[in-house]
Amino acid sequence: MQFMLIRTDNGDRAAxxxxxxxxxxxxxxxxxxxxxxxxxxxxxxxxxxxxxxxxVRLKLWPGGEAVTTGPFPRAERLPAGFAVFEAPSRAAxxxxxxxxxxxxxxxxxxxETGCPGGCAGIPPGAAGDDAxxxxxxxxxxxxxxxxIPLQEKLDRLNAFNxxxxxxxxxxxxxxxxxxxxxARVRVANGGASIIDGPFAEAKELIAGFWMIRAPSIAAAxxxxxxxxxxxxxxxxVEIRPVALIAPPxxxxxxxxxxxxxxxxxxxxxxxxxxxxxxxxxxAWDRP
Length: 287
Known about the structure:
This protein has 287 residues and is α+β, with helices and mostly antiparallel strands. The chain has one domain: Alpha-Beta Plaits, CATH 3.30.70.1060. The chain has six helices and twelve strands. It has helices at residues 19-28, 90-99, 141-144, 151-166, 217-226, 257-278, and strands spanning 2-7, 45-49, 56-61, 64-69, 81-86, 106-112, 132-138, 170-175, 183-188, 191-196, 206-213, 235-246. Strands 1, 2, 3, 4, 5, 6, 7, 8, 9, 10, 11 and 12 form a twelve-stranded antiparallel beta sheet that branches. The longest helix is centred in the C-terminal third of the chain and has 22 residues, at 257-278. The chain is globular. The relative contact order is 0.22.
């Protein structure tokens, strides 16, 4: 199973989190390689975002949009970074996180990745020296109940992702299951406690992400406008500059066979969607 470890800003969601500290904190909580059959694997992807003062929010609805620049209200700030990794089960991931929580007061959130309905994730690709941006899909009542989108919407999203992944613009992406499947590990007073989901503060939650190459945040905003979001019809995303990226699969030789297999399956799904998107239409189906 794949999970996302989400780092808030030490519980207070400060507007100016240090990206290096965020990334270091995420990586120290997970192993550099596969540790055991019942333990987690190395992160397949780990990101730290620039402070939300550099971010933009895009809200879309039928026939309109609104764009808001950061910083954002304290109660609505999204995570400072996250890491995607594999573990045999939710219980195994939580046991590891609790045992390796450290002593600094902090809260991290564990979420299961994947779209309700089974859309294809994007296996992480290397960013090189290009500027990268994350498009973070904000949670709503539908995503928090794991509402399954219409299949035609999932097909459209898969085809869009496939085209942009093949072009090298889209570097990573996946959905998240609802917080009812998640948990938080809170470190305080020298101990680590587990708080099971669901969580009520939807304005601080994400339901999925895309990571793209783009020359500017304005270009990333334009790209986000074109996404065929499977949720909606009202959608809100936050575009955040990615300040730091840990190499995919922290140590390439240590990425587990199951993670490689999962990436291969997802790549095949994307390839199939791309072929369907580019295939000639039958004469009777052309506009």
